[in-house]
Amino acid sequence: MTHPWQLVLDPEWAIALAIAAIDYAIVVSTYERRGEPVSTMRRLAFASGLFMLALALFSPIEHLALHSMLSFHLLQNVMIGDWAPPLLLLGLTPAMACALGSRRWMGFLTRPSVALIAWLVVWYGTHLPPFYDFALTHYWALGFEHLAFVVSGLMFWWPEIVDGVLTAPQKVGYLGIALVAITPLDLLVYLAHHPLYSFYEHTPKLGSISALADQQIAGVGMAFEANTVFMAVIIVALFRMLSDEMDQPAGGRPGSVSA
């Protein structure tokens, strides 16, 4: 196989990430001039989101995904669709999120039911063998796949990250439903007795492993990578819910006796 640890230059995505970084810097500067400072942590979160996208799209992960291994392609999908979007959204202040969310089309796209369905459609649809193999041999289709993961990821994580959309219990339920709904895809990839994607059947693999072994690693990896993030966010939401309950005055608690 060719040298596996090659960097990849994707001009379209490089320009898109540069525009996103410049646009965010302009917005931050505008809010600063209004006397609404943006914390360093939010700036770091947004920068980390862009870095995560760059790592997925320009590093050897992209080269291995396109020329060698399904496991790296699914890792890339998780990075683009489930790791980068929440980091980007954490970079928004409440005022920024409110300004975006006030637009009618944005309100519709980030409605929890719409966002969850769109996210599931993208994950299941792009992993259908006919589309997956087609995207790997057609540059524009692969670009569409990556864009779909970014957009659906931002839609999906908006109700979870942006305050005021869901209550803490609803956030736990929202991610719980998503976790249950996405699990069959992970199991399908892992439990299949034959390679699902013809593109990877004869590509060279690191360690000379078989296409089926690569696919099984991909299924386990995708489940672990995505579920780890989900469970971490669920735990945070549970702690926040418990904290909110403890902070309520005694008279406001259900079943309590007011003085």
Keyphrases for this structure?
259 residues, mainly alpha, globular
Characterize the structure shown.
Helix content is 75%, strand content 0%. With 259 residues, it is an all-alpha fold. Helix 3 (60-67) crosses helix 4 and helix 7 (112-126) runs parallel beside helix 10. The chain is globular and about 55 Å long.
Provide a compact summary of the structure.
The chain has 259 residues and is mainly α.
Can you tell me the residue ranges where pLDDT is under 50 for at least 5 consecutive residues? 251-259
Rg over CA atoms:
21 Å
| Straight-line distance between termini | 76 Å
- What does the average pLDDT come to? 90
Compile the SSE list and pairings.
Elements: H1 11-33, H2 40-58, H3 60-67, H4 70-90, H5 94-101, H6 104-109, H7 112-126, H8 129-137, H9 139-161, H10 168-191, H11 211-247
